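Quick start: load a record and inspect it. Here is tRNA modification GTPase MnmE:
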Amino acid sequence: MISDTIAAISTPLGEGGIAMIRISGPEAVSITDTIFFAKKKCSEMQTHTVQYGFIKEPDSGLKVDEVLLTVMLAPKSFTKENVVEISCHGGLISVKKILELLLRYGARLAEPGEFTKRAFLNGRIDLTQAEAVIDLIRSKSDRAYSVAMKQVEGSLSEKIISLRNILIELMAHIEVNIDYPEHDVEDLTYAYIADKCKQSIQLIDDLLKNANQGKILREGIVTAIVGRPNVGKSSLLNLLARENKAIVTDIPGTTRDVIEEFVTVGGVPLKLLDTAGLRETSDIVEKIGVERSRKSLLEAELVLFVLNQNEPLHLDEFNLFKEVENKQVIVILNKTDLPAQIEVEQITKQFSEEQVVKMSIKNDKGQLELEKVIANMFFEGKIESTDSSYVSNVRHIHLLNKAKRSLEEALNGTHHVPIDMLQIDIRNAWEDLGEVIGDSVSESLIDQIFSQFCLGK
Ligand code: GDP
Ligand code: ZN
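Running the structure step on this input writes:
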């Protein structure tokens, strides 16, 4: 039984100015009572209600922040324990101060993922749901969020459970046959096993088919930023990422390797690849970079093609136009702060007007328009499509493939391998599927999974 009370900063998705602190455990309410001041004490509040009040330093009476307090009493809370959530809006300093007070008055700082781990250990959620929470925390866009949310609601678990029911029934059937072996019954049983195995393999295939889409959503649409040296590719990456991870310089060809950055642009999750300037070169190091960019261009689901509109179109760029012919492309005419040397008409020969965005990246100009174009392409389905059920996790994919292999083994064995041998394969598949939903996972795997969480969930 879990006996201590944990607390952590747990800023909700969507960021914004409000921060949240979550407290869970038997003392959640009494600890809150020591620092919360309002009409009613926390302990007088009804479960699942919200109250406006103040957090104060109990000794000095000093006001820390005005807050909204939410109480959810056991067992009807996320962790099945008493949970208090404090939403404050005073920025990082007051959030930290509140957390500090809670720790001073008896709470313990939560380990990463500990809230979700408690929810799992208390039987509130199964493992796929817990893992979906990891995805949810990591998901960097609204879209990925809503897909992850569906998994929290258990759509994958449901499918796995019904799949396992088929296999249980099959195992029971075989068991009966082993106990009463008669020749004609045996033949019927082989046919029955083959049928059920095929059915189960089909169901697993359906889940696996959607695995890549889950991956797209979590990791973002693979987006290559291409263009000649010095047109502003790294500057664009930096503008979009808002942190100076890529090196920006005046010397052409300094982006030697591919730099990756995960961003959300117009609500769309992108995995940005800044490539070395694509051009023929004799410099060996740069050549490696160019090779890599060609590769990332192949992989790309979206291409941001940057041009310096202050220089006439270059032969390299005409060649590049051909290379991206079959891709979803946005052409960025950069450096609009400088005089134009490229006519839009030169671009719209190959690309539609909606695909062309004018920017002055250095001066933060045109970003909104770029966001709009990306969002439109996304919502028109040009650069992504989703399905409601999917597998979004490497561990799930591995286990599903393993289960599938066992079932194929069983299927291949029907009519010539003894039935009790087939039984072993089917049981293996059943167990692997059980692992997806956490039915038979080991202690160490649980720790491993939950250590991936961010603090506060
Ligand atoms: P990359 O080689 O394509 O990655 O280009 P960089 O991002 O490294 O930029 C090359 C140079 O162009 C740098 O000196 C940038 O400051 C400059 N630059 C980027 N965007 C603009 C812009 O909008 N206007 C002007 N005038 N210069 C820019
Ligand atoms: Zn660069």
